[in-house]
Structures are given as C-alpha cells and as structure tokens.
Amino acid sequence: MFEPNQLVLIVSCEDDPRAAGRTGRIVDEVPPGPLTGGRWTVHHGGFLIGPVLCHPHELRAL
Length: 62
Prior knowledge:
Layout: E1 7-10, E2 23-26, E3 40-43, E4 52-54, E5 59-61
Antiparallel strand pairs: 1-2, 1-5, 2-3, 3-4
C-alpha cells in the first residue's frame, strides 16, 4: 500500500513505458478504485511525460 506524496521508483509502466526507471511521487489521496483500474497516479516531474497510472506491481517504494 502506498501513501500520498510517497516517493516511488517506477519499475515499469503499462500506461507510458517511457516512465520506467524514473522516480516519482504518489498523487492519490486514497487507494485507487475501479475508475483507474486499481492503478496509482504517479507524478514524476518529467518535462515531456505527464502523470502516469501504474499498477502496484509496477512500483517500488523508496
């Protein structure tokens, strides 16, 4: 389970593979539900890549 503003490593990302290998912060204030398909919103501050939706198995806590 992740917390809001928690720093995570994006191991892989089905939503946008360019985000893999980057670090970011969890945006969601509550655990994800059916609207996002159980994926967490992660903002990684990339210039050309916006926030991405990642499954929990695609993320690693730092």
